[in-house]
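Appendix B, Record 12. Input sequence as logged:
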Amino acid sequence: MLPSIFVLRSSWNYAIFVDWLKKLTWTPESIQQWQEFYNDASRLLFFGGSSNFSFENLPRLPEFKDLKPPECKRGIPNSSIRPNSLIFFTLFSFLMTLIQRFL
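Logged structural output:
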């Protein structure tokens, strides 16, 4: 059974809700109840743009199934930078430093 805070009332008191949250202690049973409440609660979706909004009632969260990751069909090299390019960039940087100092 859900705590009395979840029972809809005609007058909602925010202070009572905050006080209830502060005093709440989580147990494995209350965690399970909260997860069931979250999964089964209906939601009102707003979507659209500008002044053209649409509303849709979602009775509960949809259940999703993870997609299978695509297989890589191309070989991945051991290093992303080839040794020759690393030597080139090192020499280029060294030469630029020499040119800037002597010109």
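Strands lie at 43-49, 52-58.
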